[in-house]
Amino acid sequence: MGATKDLFVFGSELSVFQAHNSFDTTYNQLALKKYFAYAFIPAPFCAFENCYKLKPGHSLTFDVRTQTHRITPYWQFRIEVAASPPSFEEAAEELETLFVQAVKRRLMSDVPLGAFLSGGVDSSSVLAAMCRISPAQSVQSFAIGFTEKSFDESSYAREMSTYLGCKHHEEILDLTKARSIIPDVLTQLDEPMADGSLLPTYLLCQFARKHVKVALSGDAGDELFAGYDPFKALQPANVYHRFVPKFMHQATKSLIDLLPMSNKNMSLDFKLRRVLMGMDHQPALWLPTWMAPLQENDICDLFNAPTDAEELYSETLDLWNENPNKTQIDKSLEYFTNFYLPDDILTKVDRASMMNGLEARAVFLDCDLVEFVRRLPCHYKFDGKTTKKVLKKAVSRLVPDSVLNRRKKGFGVPLMAWMKEIPLNTQGANQFQLNPDSIETYISKHLSEQKDYRFFLWNWLVLQKSKASHL
Predict the structure, then answer these.
(1) The pLDDT of residue 260 is above 80
(2) Which of 147, 254, 301, 460 is the most exposed place for a label (fewest CB within 10 A)?
(3) Is 210 exposed, middle or buried (0-12, 13-18, 19+ CB in 10 A)?
């Protein structure tokens, strides 16, 4: 929505506002800073001044007489552990029932439907439940692979589809294909969001739409059940934070920077650099800074303006400090579910699917399932070693052990290598009030492998190409 003293405009997409000649196209500098801090612009911020996004689970009421509006939350995801939670075994049994029910609800359709399949726990569980409900030979699965082996999960998806006996489709994404679809994809974004997996998600939706009109996904499984690698990093980070003095921390960072940079998915040098970046801050900021496209000092240089982590991640801090009695795991679950899930994952899938006329349905966002899971103790989800523990137990009769026990890869893309091959420039820097010299420096350092700026460079390319740069 856009609002000034004499104007109130609302719409489902930012680009429709340009039809109004009073719409202010001045860029919101704090929102752009947050974009380079998160890789998305968190609601309620928007790329433009006097323009805001309505946060998930909120309603807006506008009074035409007083020209005022009121925003109120009607539901927010919070961990509220039950006073007397079920036992782990009971929770797993109930979760299995709720999960199959959630899949069954999303199979209601008058048009052909299928499922996205990575071969991981979440998507494999969705597909397996579909095959329990319907004849396997009538179920279709869709997967994307990469020519870079460390990123490729297509063989796992193939194995799972063969195990279930469903009809499987797959495509491979390489740099040539990625470069060919970048203009089609990025120029359709009304607001920049820089999740690199937008490209394979777009391609996945594109070829799925050739066969079906609806696809079920495993999105939200990681957020609800602590499936991401940062959950495993929390305890080692706590030990490091407690015992390593500041001077030794700086020396450790310098030492790790000497390691050669790898193009592989989630390489050791990448993980070490990311974790140590977060150690510059308080625990409340570890998660967003571990995942940040650009660190605080680089953002200051980019905008030629002072800023600090508390300003960049103000919404994260507010949520983290909301209830000091919650565990670090529960606070992390709330971070991923309130920010990363709606502003990144779901936005990415929505944009990619709608560009191709495909409807994507997220099974794990079933109301009954979410309500049940948010009241379970955190150690049911992550016990310090096993992620998604209760989910894996719940689907153990649906999914083979080879899938449940396999190390998570994640839907990453080889941006480290790609951003050395995709042409980059500083065009448009002044339009966003950015320092072109800083951009040139980041490009140069990445190409010479002095420093890993893959995420910033992708963020910058997305910003250049998105509709926000042309309004």
Answers:
(1) yes
(2) 254
(3) exposed
Q: Distance from CA of residue 376 to its chain's centroid?
A: 23
DSSP single-letter state for residue 361: E
Distance CA 397, CA 454 (A): 40
Q: How far is CA 87 from the centre of its chain?
A: 31
| Residue position matching structure tokens 């509006």 | 69
Token output for 51: 């323009």
Instruction: Give 217's strand partners.
Output: 362
User: What's the pLDDT tens digit per position in 73-90?
Assistant: 999 999 999 999 999 999
Q: Which amino acid does the sequence have at 430?
A: N
Q: Bridge partners of 171?
A: 144
Q: How confident is the model at residue 153 (pLDDT cuts 50, 70, 90)?
A: confident
Q: Could you give the CA distance from residue 432 to residue 442 in angstroms, rounded to a whole number? A: 17
Distance CA 120, CA 128 (A): 12
How far apart, in whole angstroms, are the C-alpha atoms of residue 290 and residue 309?
13
Q: Which residue, 32, 33, 15, is CA-closest to 190?
A: 15
Place of tokens 């870079």: 148
Q: Distance between CA 266 and CA 45 in Å, rounded?
A: 30
Q: Give the integer Cα–Cα distance in Å for 375 and 95.
A: 12
Contact 209, 356 (CB under 8 A): yes
Q: Are 456 and 294 in contact (CB under 8 A)?
A: yes
**Identity of the amino acid at 453:** Y
According to DSSP, residue 1 is labeled -
Query: Following CA atoms 254, 259, 260, 261 in sequence, which dihedral angle do they give, to the nearest 10 degrees?
Result: -70
Alpha-carbon span 118 to 145, nearest angstrom: 9
Closest to 157 (Cα-Cα) out of 115, 204, 119: 119
Q: Do residues 310 and 317 make contact, with C-beta atoms less than 8 angstroms apart?
A: yes
pTM: 0.93
| CB of 200 closer than 8 Å to CB of 152 | no
How do strand 214-217 and strand 167-173 relate by DSSP bridges? unpaired
